[in-house]
Write a structure and sequence with these properties.
By secondary structure, the protein is of the alpha/beta class. About 35% of the residues lie in helices and about 20% in strands. A seven-stranded mixed β-sheet has the order 3-2-1-4-5-7-6.
């Protein structure tokens, strides 16, 4: 059964745009491996503010392009883009394409949805013959900043006690992504061609707390929703201390923020 991770009611679209250039880079890397020449129906799943949707519109200007996202705030931001696209507010677990797809793009969204063993075959089933599913997913579960988050949940309460419920801590410690080999074994029988790879980008970010600014709008959303206001304050205070210790500013003022991603291009 596909499961939803518990997340805050809506996204902070303005904050998400803070690192739009770096968020665009993996989309470019992903689309470089997509070899479709004239797709007619393209859906940008989890389109957010339209960072990837703009690139799709530039590459395939004649395609019928739709951005799909569960967040009204994100879609309000995307609708301001000067591109020809339609927009639909929908949870991806409930969404069905209005027309079978030639390209499904899922940039930094599928890692929020559990049970990829069920989800990815279902998405492949929504493609026309010769259609392509192109996805990239942050692989943050072994990242230092993520381990710091788990440590903070474990001991940032009064007297070193845990924060939040045991269910929250267990859910955040879970790993929804599969190993690369398991993605291959899952998708190879269903596809004509399959390309899977992983990268680690040394992101160079700026700001007073850039690592926290990056993760607070995505990975930390379920944490902040599950905690009460006092717990939120304790979490942020202790988490920021740890992040600043382990991600210090360089002499030139920049902060180095390594970031792993998994990429999949699957053609049926």
């Amino acid at each position: 059964m596909i499961t939803r991770l518990n997340v805050a009611p809506d996204w902070d679209a303005k904050a998400y745009q803070q690192f739009s250039r770096l968020r665009q880079r993996p989309v470019n890397e992903l689309l470089d491996r997509v070899e479709l020449h004239n797709p007619k129906h393209i859906y940008d799943l989890g389109c957010g503010t339209g960072i990837a949707t703009q690139l799709l519109a530039q590459r395939w200007p004649r395609a019928q392009l739709q951005g799909v996202d569960s967040s009204r705030q994100m879609l309000d931001e995307a609708r301001c883009l000067p591109i020809h696209a339609s927009w639909k507010q929908s949870d991806l677990l409930d969404w069905q394409p209005e027309q079978p797809a030639d390209l499904l793009l899922a940039a930094a969204v599928l890692h929020f949805i559990g049970d990829h063993d069920t989800l990815l075959p279902r998405l492949l089933g929504q493609l026309n013959r010769g259609g392509c599913l192109a996805a990239h997913m942050p692989d943050w579960r072994d990242a230092l900043w993520y381990r710091l988050m788990l440590d903070t949940l474990d001991d940032a309460g009064p007297g070193g006690t845990p924060l939040g419920t045991r269910q929250l801590r267990q859910r955040m410690a879970a790993r929804p992504l599969l190993a690369l080999e398991d993605y291959y074994r899952l998708l190879a029988p269903l596809t004509e061609s399959l390309d899977i790879w992983e990268t680690e980008q040394l992101q160079v970010v700026d700001g007073k707390s850039p690592v926290y600014d990056w993760v607070k709008v995505s990975a930390l959303r379920p944490v902040m929703q599950a905690l009460n206001s006092e717990e939120q304050s304790r979490f942020i205070y202790h988490y920021l201390m740890r992040v600043h210790e382990h991600y210090p500013q360089e002499r030139n003022g920049h902060t180095l923020f390594p970031f792993k991603r998994i990429f999949i291009v699957a053609t049926v």
